[in-house]
Amino acid sequence: MTKRILLTGADGQLGSEICQRVAQMTAAYTLEATDQARLDICDLAQVEAAVAAFKPDVIVNAAAYTAVDKAESERDIAFAVNAQGAENLALAASQAGCRLIHISTDYVFNGENCKPWQPNDPVGPINVYGESKLAGEQAVLKALPGALIIRTAWVYSRHGENFVKTMIRLMNDRDSLGIISDQIGTPTHAGRLAEIVLTAVDQPALSGIYHWTDAGVASWYDFAQAIYELGSKAGLITSACQLTPIGTRDYPTPATRPCYSVMDCSRSREVLGLARHWREQLHFMIAELDYVNKGANA
User: Fold this and answer.
1) Is 291 a catalytic site residue?
2) Which of 20, 142, 151, 272 is the most buried (most CB within 10 A)?
3) What is the pLDDT of residues 80-115, one digit of tens each?
4) Integer Cα distance of 173 and 34 in angstroms
5) Among the options 29, 107, 129, 221, which is catalytic?
6) Does pTM top 0.70 for this prediction?
7) Share in percent of the chain as helix, strand, coil (round to 5)
8) What does the CA dihedral 37, 41, 42, 47 come to, rounded to 10 degrees?
């Protein structure tokens, strides 16, 4: 039976990847893809009307306020989207009797750990973005205890703005870059995350909190080195750039970042599928960018 999916944040990194994959699987899914212009999730009446009109089997909430540094001065906006918006979707899903898959983040943790974070580990966000996402998780589970929350981290894709695309631009523009080496996590390609979300759509009994990232561990410096290597081989980076590891204290930002964001994904691997190493996924994304770049210049 074809499943009806109401997707929020369809113009974001994850949302774009979900749309791309659903377009290739039209027999399995009917998708109503919305962005902020089409559906303001901060408006409960709009959300309820959209759910009543489309009658989804599942809502996938990929919408989020993700400007981590700006959130420090835009607290109300971050909470409106990440907490109130998430709650509105959960309330509407509860009323309509449909599922909700809500995407969250490693930033709900304080980063003060020496082993991968378990889904049930104590939370303690250290910036406004993390606080707003945690508030969203809590609101979702209160309004809809059977919701599924998937926490992820360090997401990138060929869509939108992200670390990979920023690094490629800067590596072409500068002779040297200092990259933070004491923040540890797992880069995650939005394409594989989209596949995992759709796998979860097909498992209606799945609920609670799960972690999903690609496999492996890296610092931002490790990630940047791999971007430079693969980007240079693909011809996306055409000039020499010296990368230097620096500490967090050498690059102050408005929002404090967690030092350790590696998450334990063993439970999700068992029920949602195996992960590929982040370097393999980065190679795939660089190839995508190369293909798009060559097409644009043809």
Assistant:
1) no
2) 151
3) 999 999 999 999 999 999 999 999 999 999 999 989
4) 35
5) 129
6) yes
7) 45, 20, 40
8) 110
